Amino acid sequence: MEVSIELSQNEKHECFESFDDDGRLKRKGTMWTASAHIITAVIGSGVLSLAWAIAQLGWVAGPVVMILFSFVIYYTSSLLSDCYRSGDPISGKRNYTYTDAVTAYLGGLKVNICGFIQYANLFGVAISYTIASSISMTAIRRSNCFHQKGQNSPCHISSNPYMIIFGVIEIIFSQIPDFDQIWWLSIVAAVMSFTYSCIGLALGIVQVVANGGIKGSLTGISIGAVTETQKIWRSLQAFGDIAFAYSYSMILIEIQDTIKSPPPSEAKVMKKATLLSVEVTTVFYLLCGCLGYAAFGDSAPGNLLTGFGFYNPFWLLDIANAAIVIHLVGAYQVYCQPLFAFIEKWATRKWPHSEFISREIKIGRSYKLNLFRLVWRTAFVVVTTVISMLLPFFNDIVGLLGAVGFWPLTVYFPVEMYIVQKKVAKWSTRWVCLQMLSFACLVVSLAAAVGSIAGVVSDLKVFRPFKSSY
């Protein structure tokens, strides 16, 4: 009898040890896994447009704007990481998602506004990544075509089949149940992002040497090569491209929710992961953007790797583009898992007794197939793929997404939640400084949105649906 009681106590102890303070399975994330998630999310397809962005702004404004964005992102991300727990940073109530944090601190209409902007932006990112992946797959096909048929061959390749291939891959990976289980995919994706960034850097250096010097000017592309109006629109769009390249705040809370329980607090770990990730990405961005501009000058392409042509070394470009595709497969999941989880939780609350939503079919030893998850996530990927085929404007879509999501998700809500959490007195020095930061970023977002919309309108004038080719 005593033995059975002892075993029961051990079982209870083991059961207790396997769960966190909120009753969920123990989180196992560390600073390194959080950094991998952030780098996967940040060093995405946006890095490829940075040379073009600097070409619009020039040698002075381009790097300065990029560094300013990095400071803003780090500062506001630090504010946001403090909002993961309500009250005490060690034992306070957890906020599992960005929207949960807004609900806890701000409430009311702001929750609905935040949710709409966040999930609309995640939806847009999925479209952008589908377009970017198809560009890279098409580039691989074209380089091989030129290698086989000669440089004079037209080698026009439709991007639509490659968008479909990417969509099929994402349908498979989207069946991974939740964020915490894709850490390995984030690590692979982060390695791939460094791979193609390093190849881009190396090719940029080689191009600068071949040119016999550095191209570009202090003020960027000059009037004459473009009209005054185009110069303005492009410069504004460049702000949006840079904002998009740094954006990850919309999934910061979800990443933080994967970090194991204190001590130290999740906020401290997340701040370290954010600092490391922003430092690494800023160095990479400056190198890629500046070397790309130095190599191509005012004619820097919207996608850096396509500027090196499709000829030689074709195998190195193929590796770089393949790395982009692999990275985007992971990045797509990092961004979409919060949206997947939101819809599934909403459906469970709405129809708690539905077998279609709650029933899970065990497959193999550990995987459980949920029919609602299968249908909903498959439908999501199909819709984003079709829209990508309709709107294959990579550069303009990137700029618009960056502009729309930057101010509200990266600056406004983190600042407002921090003010409530720390009880910052209205009209105090700190309050005024925070509001000035928020207003300045609002102006930048609006300007970037205008420039990107102008670019989309220009593209639509010559656009034919489902006829995209390279």
TrEMBL record:
Protein name (database record): Amino acid transporter transmembrane domain-containing protein
Species whose genome carries this gene: Dendrobium nobile (Orchid)
Key word Ribonucleoprotein present: no
Keywords in alphabetical order: Amino-acid transport, Cell membrane, Membrane, Symport, Transmembrane, Transmembrane helix, Transport
Subcellular location: Cell membrane
GO cellular component: plasma membrane
GO molecular function: symporter activity
Keyword Transmembrane among UniProt keywords: yes
Transmembrane feature ranges: 34-54, 60-84, 119-140, 160-176, 182-206, 273-294, 314-335, 374-394, 400-420, 432-457
Domain of life, per lineage: Eukaryota
InterPro entries linked: AA_transpt_TM (IPR013057)
BP term (GO), one: amino acid transport
Family: Belongs to the amino acid/polyamine transporter 2 family. Amino acid/auxin permease (AAAP) (TC 2.A.18.2) subfamily.
Domain Amino acid transporter transmembrane: 27-457
